[in-house]
Amino acid sequence: MNTFLFRKFTPLAALLGLGITACQPDLEDDFKPNKGSADFSRYIAVGNSLTAGYGDNGLYLEGQLNSYPNLLAQQFRTAGGGEFVQPLFTEAQSNGSGYLRLTGFTAAGTPITASVPGNAGRLTPGSAPYTKVTTPINNLGVPGIRLADIHTAGYGNVQTTPLNAATFNPFFERITPDGSNQTYFQRVKAEAATATFFSSWLGNNDVLGYATTGGVGGIITRTDSFTLKNNRIINVLTANGAKGVVATLPDVTNIPFFTTVRVADIRARFKAANSALDVYIQTTGTAGAQVVRLATDADLLTLPSSAVIGTTTTGSPFPVGAGVGTGVGQSNPVPNQFVLDATEQTAVRTATTAFNNAIVTKANEKNLAIFDSNAFFARVATSGITTNGVTNTAAFISGNLFSLDGVHPTPRGYAVIANEMIRAINSKYNASVPTVNPNDYRGVRFPQ
Amino acid sequence: MNLKSLLLAGGALLSGTAASAGGYQVTLAGQKNNGMGGVGVGLSLDQAAMFYNPGALAMVKDRGVQVGVNLTLARNAFVAEGGNQQRELRNSYTTPLNFYAGFGPAEGKFRAGIAVYTPFGSKLQYADGWEGRTSLTDIDLKSVFVQPTISYAITDQLSVGAGLVVLAYGAVNLQRDIALPDSYGHIELDGKADTKFGFNAGIFFKPSDKLSLGINYRSKIDAVVKDGDVTFSGIPASFSSRFQATKFNATLPLIATTSIGLGIMPNEKLTIGFDASLAQWSKYRVLRFDFDQQINGSTSSESKRFYEDALTFRLGGQYKLTEGLTVRAGGAYDQTPVRDGYVTPETPDNDRLSGTLGASYTFGKFGVDLSAQYVGIMKRTVTQTELLNNGTTDRIAGTYKTNIVIPGIGLNYAF
């Protein structure tokens, strides 16, 4: 019987071992990366702060490492992509320009942030410059640049007498040789000469500066100028046959910078203190006159207004934002630079639409992939986006997608953007570039 | 979430054992049957008839004791939608057991017996850091049913039988990661099911030596977990106030099954069986967990299952090669109860095809039964679009493929 059992079991055990090995399913062949008709061997990224990896009101090493171009390049590598060089801050200077961090919440639940000072130089136009990176680079994202600035000579060459602060960009200076007056366009042209693939996301700042200052600071770029410069940059990027993806501009009124501080909430707060109080704002009236009026729910208050509203002002019986009427001395209105009223919102939306028309028209002319970030962020603002079972929304702090400045994405937000671009690229070039798992990238960092 | 996971766990168990009809029903109940594609409703092979069709027990000539054990080895591959990285399980196994003791007068019309079997159970441990970690990281579901049974032969051709089904032991352990803004925490739900009762009844008709028919019904039992333990780990102090629950309640329907079976015996050596079963999975609508305190702002969680009834077809036979040696073969086709867009990591299910082999050798009153099964669960893809359309984004989009190997051995003694 023992012999029998042994005879019986030995082949069975062998069979079992084979069976288990053969049992492991293999799906990898079904999902092999493929470059399609694109060539990712040298990819360059053109853009502004979003492209640089800016977040939490600063550019620092962690943000650079999680920039969407870096994520794209990492994914392109599975489909023939090459090396991707970014002008990274060193470990020793990893705080970069400085940034905001979350330190906690007030009893009422309002987030408290603190500034982490920069340690890479150039804290003001007068201080020492950032450590330069003048070697060939792939990520040409320059925080703060407008499409309107691409032909500005000396954009990365600081002048002291007189100080050219209005037309000088310290982040472009980082990637510009000493004493060079080269324009952003010229730098892009040099890198584009050898590029096989590009991403381009320029133009956000051509409307953002106006919006974030409540229509007081910054001007909206003229559409004809925008269109001309957009055409030029796309022409130079495609001059050598490179393929690429371009992004449209999101409607900035959907971002937490404008949606977190709400008139209705402020009104409720004031009325809880004194039912006679209401919310009053200062706006630009006809012919540029400053007028005071009752705020409506259609008025957008900026994120920085939260630090001002409700504080006391010497000489006024009302806290900032409160009042009982529009007459002189009857209110202490929210200053104009914190308010984006209906007229200003219309100006922002009209410009965004016109700019996007120019971007899409040119992209279609060159048969490029298009990431419609405007449609995407509108969808996120309405219904959020679920990434592998995790819910993300456009809400400030809790939504995971927007960093502490309320404008720029978190690493999670950049990962989501990278995935949307990959989808656009895959669709346009019949490629199979794998997406990233956005949940591997953080939302807002909380105090430990 | 816990209840949902529990339900899902059941499904995984089924797939893990794979001999049965999708969901979390397992028919690894008899080692002879296991070698024959799982047929048994229309046959009267041995004491395992108590599970397959209590009505056939009175027609089982021998009285005896038998015990069997199976080893389920599930291997799974997963690729998230849009990704290219294959995830594989941290491999584990389960050991579904069965035990039967049948008694009765040698020539009498009565048979009585007791059956112990493990109709539900599953264990899946997903890869560390896998894309679906916030849906599920680990599931371990166990159950033991005890079934006192009586059977009576009304005539030489017709017999009936019934058993009281006792959910004697049920345990669930579900774990998943919790997505925090900048890190992951972890939650473990661990509980035992209340003892519950159901029944298993059947009719067996054998109009000739060459033909037999059977019908069997197993009732639904709701597995109820009360005051299961909720344990959090890795939650930073900033978030701990949002994860306060310590206890959970959940209910998992262990659904009813109706089966018909046919046996054909062309000669004394050859037996062929065919079974068809309807599993009433449509009772599984949602998986709900209730917590004693809030978890991230809510004291309950509910997840859509919306299963649908599923059919299973089995075909198998045995041939008596010599006086001592019998060989078996069979196969089965199981429809999945999981609809498109509702696939979960707990039950990465689809239609399944299985093939089985078996052999028995008897030495007088002793016998040894060997069986081996290979179950292929078809590739299943769930897309993010489907999840969005169905409101089921609490799970992950991607493609699953699972295969299962199940060797088994049984010993029996007839008296």
Summarize the structure.
The complex is a heterodimer of chains A (448) and B (415). With 448 residues, chain A is an alpha/beta fold.
What is the H/E string of chain B?
HHHEEEEEEEEEEEEEEEEEEEEEEHE
Tell how many strands the DSSP assignment of chain B holds. 23
| Helix content percent band of chain A | 25-40%
User: Based on CA inertia axes, which overall geometry of chain B fits?
Assistant: elongated
Distance between the termini of chain A: 66 Å
What is the overall number of helices of chain A? Answer: 13
Number of helices of chain B: 4
β-strand percent of chain A reads: 5-15%
Tell me about this structure.
The complex is a heterodimer of chains A (448) and B (415). Chain A is built from 13 helices and 14 strands. With 448 residues, chain A is an alpha/beta fold. In chain A, the strands form five sheets. A five-stranded parallel β-sheet of chain A has the order 4-1-5-6-12, sandwiched between helices. In chain A, strands 8-7-10 form a three-stranded antiparallel β-sheet, covered by helices on one side. In chain A, helix 4 (68-76) crosses helix 13 (411-429), helix 6 runs parallel beside helix 8 and helix 8 (223-238) runs parallel beside helix 11. Chain A is globular, with a radius of gyration of 26 Å. Chain A starts with a helix and ends in a 19-residue tail after the last helix. Chain B has helices at 2-17, 31-34, 49-52, 384-390, and strands at residues 64-70, 72-80, 87-88, 93-94, 97-103, 110-117, 121-125, 138-153, 158-179, 184-192, 196-208, 211-218, 221-233, 247-254, 257-264, 270-279, 286-295, 298-304, 310-320, 325-334, 352-363, 366-382, 398-414. Chain B has a 14-stranded antiparallel beta barrel with strand order 1-5-6-8-9-11-12-15-16-19-20-21-22-23. With 415 residues, chain B is mostly beta strands. Chain B has four helices and 23 strands. Classes of the chains: A alpha/beta (448), B mainly beta (415). The interface between A and B is large, with 44 and 51 residues.
